[in-house]
Amino acid sequence: MEAYTQQVITVIQEIPTGTVATYGQIARLAGNPRAARQVARILHSMSQKYDLPWHRVVNAKGEIVIGDPEIAFTQTALLSEEGIEVSEKGKVHLSKYQWNPRDHDSDWMYG
DNA sequence: TTGATGACATAGC
DNA sequence: CGCTATGCCATCA
After folding, report:
1. CATH code for position A16
2. Residue A104 has what pLDDT?
3. Checking CA distances to A77, which of A5, A16, A17, A66 falls within 20 to 30 Å?
4. How many domains would you assign to chain A?
């Protein structure tokens, strides 16, 4: 278990209910902006070893592009449980449900 | 260690 | 908005 992996897992667990985060976003918060792929890899691998809220993780477009329809369906269902609206194609309104990680660390530059 | 893989992101057309 | 090409690097065999 590398520090980065542990970090990614921590970040994912930081995702509040009712919101979704993108791989790139998690990767950045984890410290590796280029490791967006590894986030996916970590989910796929670790989610079956740890209890990660992987369902709150989507791609940069907010779509559920998972290969297995079962998993995609599960994610859609879970997101629905969180109160998140999901399109027929498994798309989510990032502008409405994307996680705003300013709570993670007060390093915001909008104000 | 080496080689191959992948639940993605970003840039150009 | 969709397709093509490249980068990036942890995980698995």
Report:
1. 1.10.10.10
2. 56
3. A5
4. 1
CA of A40 to C1' of C4 (A): 22
Is the residue at A21 inside a domain? yes
Distance CA(A11)–CA(A14), nearest Å, equals 5
Q: Give the pLDDT of residue A19.
A: 94
Query: Mean pLDDT in each 10-residue stretch from start to end of chain A (111 residues)?
Result: 88 93 93 90 87 93 86 91 91 92 57 46
The whole-number pLDDT of residue A105 equals 55
In a domain, A30, yes or no: yes
Q: Name the nucleotide nearest A26; use CA and C1'.
A: B8
State whether the Cα torsion A27-A66-A80-A49 is positive or negative: negative
* Residue A34 resides in a domain: yes
User: Which nucleotide does the CA of A75 lie closest to, via C1'?
Assistant: B7
Residue A105 falls inside a structural domain:
no
**Residue A22 phi, psi (nearest 5):** -95, 160
Q: Which nucleotides of B are covered by protein (CB under 7 A)?
A: 5-10
- Owner of token pair 């986030």: A39
